[in-house]
Description:
alpha+beta, 2 domains, five-stranded mixed beta sheet
Amino acid sequence: MTITINEKSATAAVGDKLIHVAQENHSHVGYVCAGNGVCQTCYVTVEKGAECLSPLSDVEKAFLSERQIAEGGRMACQATLEKEGTVVMRSRPETVRTMLFSNPAGLFAYGAEMGMDTAERIVPGVVNLAGRIMNGELKSEDPMGELLKSLKGALGLAARQLPESIPFGLGEQIGRLAGSLPLSLPFPAPAAETGEKLIAVPVKAKKS
């Protein structure tokens, strides 16, 4: 299906979470808490195609203000593509970056709105978080897999953005290098047990 993240096309399928679509397509969407809906760095504004997404989760209802919801705000770690269609969304970091270059003065008002949204939802957000902790819901089913997805997304984003940021062709060269890096963690596999026992042999120093 068609999905656009930060004005760039991305490949996706029904059943995908927005955060995983962003990671696979190296889009600038934050991701810190392994999909637990705590950090809110994955906040995005859905500009088109909201009807293609899953309904607001209890986590989103707890953390997002009425203003954010009315403007199409979603948490990418909570929203899932439920049906075919065209979806257009923009991440918070990309919104800030765009304003920085086009309307720097607007950042003050934007920051004030963010602060008001946080203040408005701090109590229901904390209540939701405490409830999930008590119920043992605040965890990742596959923490290592989530970490690898985050690393892969970050490296892919670097490979995409460097050519646009560094002049004289250096960015393109560094980007290719970043994109070719191995994405496995440098942890050695545990040694197989052989069942052999070690025998201690006493050694005495020879007297001269």
